[in-house]
Design a protein that fits this description.
The chain is built from 15 helices and 17 strands. The strands form five sheets. The chain has a seven-stranded mixed beta sheet with strand order 4-12-11-10-9-5-6, sandwiched between helices. Strands 13-14-17-16 form a four-stranded antiparallel beta sheet, covered by helices on one side. The longest helix is centred in the C-terminal third of the chain and has 24 residues.
Length: about 450
């Protein structure tokens, strides 16, 4: 507990409650306040600052809105997990939730019901209830090698390590590539789970410049001239949260820079099998060590958490040991279902359904929000909305909620939350049908159109 934590609010130009929230945001960014740390009580902090308890209560509420804090009844207030803050579902009546970046599951549930009915009749299910060793059964790894082919990666099954979702694959790469205090570089806006891993492994995380095409290669070289990073993590295809696709020339240049400075690349291609016509993964052009991460949670169903980590041959033993040390192995029953679907063609049919469904939803988003500054792709279930100058990200999120819509602010994705842009991520997959999704997008449109805040107004 950080009972002695005191926010620095000496040079404030905003209301006191917001200055306290800004101080929390700075100290979370600087790792002064880490995930899971208990905050001072409202009364203790109010006494220390000489302010009303209501001011601290409002400041903590603002920090919760930004995804920085969570409150637990009877236990206190804690620094939140940055990934959970942007991926938390809501059960509030009347709220259309666009925060969780997952594909819809209605069609997949039908296929799963049929699969489970036939599952017990297959002889090969025997033995799935025992312990399995990482890197996984050969048959499951073979299915993984077939799955990554959908994204243009062709490797033998021996290069594939089965993981409990892509997040565990990323954890395994951090485990083998980093030591406490090392530097890991990534896009300035990135998947929030990377911030969680940086805290877990006590590594420094630095954001690299991005533009409307994705990562700027020169920014990688600038950092490498100063200090050799332990790894580069990036999502070139349907970047989370900005939905950009990195051009081929930049992928080639990044591969060359990484090889020149001997920086391992961790390529998160979780959306790769879903896309069509995009440049080849960086993995296919990298001449140095490159770890390729793919899976089924974004392209088949979020509950089928099977990840495939393609590692350099000389590192397979180490990443398999990292998987073994955390969860022993990927769940054999889930791996068997996914393997069966890949081998039988069910996974490809589900993939085609997701392409068509995401295409319909993205087309509706362009029709409803096209007058605003958005980035989206023909396939994939999220888009990036850059807000008019009048809006701060958190203010817009609050206004949208008042209009019955939950969306993710930019701060959980920013490596340095102080640099969070005026933007929000809108995930299109969670509303159960397109009609509900379109209703939510119309509410977002109305929020943008009706809540015209004057410039430079402090609220």
């Amino acid at each position: 507990m950080v009972e002695e934590w005191t926010p620095n609010i000496d040079d404030r130009k905003v209301p006191l409650y917001r200055a306290i929230a800004d101080a929390i945001e700075r100290d979370v960014a600087d790792r002064v306040l880490r995930h899971g740390t208990q905050m001072p009580t409202h009364r203790a902090l109010a006494d220390r600052l000489g302010v009303n308890v209501a001011t601290v209560t409002r400041a903590y509420s603002e920090a919760r809105l930004r995804g920085l804090l969570v409150g637990e009844v009877g236990r206190g207030t804690y620094v939140s997990n940055p990934s959970a803050s942007s991926e938390r579902a809501t059960t509030e009546s009347g709220i259309i939730d666009f925060r969780i970046n997952q594909p819809p599951t209605s069609e997949v549930e039908k296929a799963l019901s049929r699969e489970l009915a036939a599952f017990s009749g297959r002889v090969r299910t025997m033995g799935l209830l025992g312990y399995h060793q990482a890197p996984g059964k050969l048959q499951h790894r073979s299915a993984g090698s077939k799955w990554v082919e959908r994204a243009g990666v062709f490797v033998e099954p021996g290069r594939v390590v089965l993981t409990n979702g892509a997040q565990q694959a990323l954890m395994a790469t951090f485990a083998v590539l980093t030591q406490p205090g090392d530097l890991v570089v990534t896009e300035a806006l990135t998947y929030p789970g990377i911030r969680s891993l940086a805290d877990l492994f006590r590594v420094r995380l630095r954001g690299l410049r991005i533009d409307d095409q994705g990562l700027v290669p020169d920014s990688l070289e600038e950092v490498c001239r100063e200090e050799k990073p332990a790894a580069l993590y990036l999502t070139p295809t349907i970047h989370n949260p900005t939905a950009t696709v990195l051009p081929l020339e930049r992928r080639q240049e990044i591969a060359r820079i990484a090889e020149r400075y001997q920086v391992p690349i961790v390529e998160d291609d979780i959306y790769g099998p879903l896309t069509a016509g995009n440049p080849a993964p960086i993995f296919t052009m990298a001449t140095g060590d490159c770890y390729y991460v793919c899976g089924t949670s974004k392209t088949v169903a979020p509950g089928l958490r099977i990840g495939y980590l393609v590692a350099p041959s000389h590192m397979i033993h180490y990443v398999a040991n990292a998987v073994h040390a955390t969860t022993w192995s990927a769940p054999p029953l889930t791996a068997e279902i996914v393997t069966s679907w890949i081998e039988s063609g069910i996974a490809d049919r589900v993939l085609e359904w997701h392409r068509a469904e995401s295409g319909r939803r993205q087309a509706a988003a362009r029709r409803i929000l096209g007058q605003f500054d958005i980035t989206n792709q023909p396939f994939g279930y999220h888009l990036w909305l850059r807000l008019p100058e009048e809006w701060r990200s958190e203010d817009f999120v609050q206004a949208a909620r008042a209009n019955g819509v939950a969306i993710a602010p930019s701060s959980p994705f920013a490596v340095d939350p102080r640099d969070a842009p005026r933007a929000v991520r809108i995930s299109l997959g969670l509303p159960e049908n397109q009609a509900l999704m379109e209703e939510g997008l119309m509410r977002i449109n109305d929020t943008l159109s009706q809540y015209n805040m004057p410039k430079n107004v402090i609220i």
